[in-house]
Design goal:
By secondary structure, the protein is α+β, with helices and mostly antiparallel strands. It folds into 2 domains: 3-153, no CATH class; 156-197, no CATH class. It is 41% helix and 30% strand. The protein contains 6 helices and 10 strands. A 6-stranded antiparallel β-sheet has the order 1-4-5-6-2-3, with helices on both faces. Helix 2 (24-39) crosses helix 3 (43-52) and helix 4 (55-75) crosses helix 5. The N and C termini lie far apart (48 Å). Mean pLDDT is 80; it is low at 1-13.
Length: 198
């Protein structure tokens, strides 16, 4: 999906709330407002207290990971294919498939960064709908305008759990095996079948 189309997707749903958000500035700002309201601090003192509390981001990160993991487990989503556009100051594009068992695994695979960033992911459709996917952006110091992200659900191999892109899966229904398998497992199954027949 190209960067222009990604921008169009974000513009179309500008009024829709993101499904998942990580933005340290917004987290600190909410904590600052809490200290101003609950403790009567002025803005500067409340900001200093918010950014000085190392637990603020830790608790927010744990909440986000738990929220993502709940979404994954509720919908039985664990195999993904993600595309990224306009990455870093060089504007690279890339794609990969991955398996995630925790919310933290999912976020780290989608974001793919080891620096401060903000993340917004929106839903296109509803879980279970044909074509359901997530889309959004990641912003950081090398890409302040944002890198596009699209996350698709893919099948998982019934033998090795490797993610399989649409069109690459092999469905088998015979006396020995039944299910959806990747190319590698299909090859091993063929080899085993040949051994058993010999």
């Amino acid at each position: 999906m190209g960067g222009q189309l990604m921008g169009a997707n974000l513009a179309v749903n500008a009024k829709k709330a993101p499904l998942f958000v990580w933005d340290t500035h917004s987290i600190y700002k909410a904590e600052m407002e809490y200290h101003m309201t609950e403790h009567g601090l002025d803005e500067d003192a409340a900001w200093e207290r918010a950014v000085g509390d190392c637990n603020v981001l830790t608790l927010a990160w744990e909440d986000l990971c738990a929220w993502v993991e709940d979404w994954m487990n509720t919908n039985d989503f664990h195999h993904f294919y993600t595309e990224a556009t306009n990455m870093t100051w060089r504007n690279f594009d890339g794609a990969k498939m991955f398996v995630a068992d925790t919310g933290e695994d999912f976020i780290r695979q989608v974001v793919g960064l080891d620096c401060d960033y903000s993340l917004s992911l929106y839903e296109r459709g509803k879980p279970g709908d044909d074509g359901y996917h997530l889309y959004g952006s990641v912003r950081h110091h090398d890409s302040p305008a944002g890198e596009g992200r699209v996350v698709y659900l893919v099948a998982g191999c019934d033998e090795c759990a490797k993610p399989i892109r649409d069109g690459e899966e092999h469905v088998i229904e015979d006396r020995w095996y039944e299910g959806v398998y990747c190319e590698d497992c299909i090859g091993r199954m063929r080899d085993l079948s040949e051994c058993e027949e010999a």
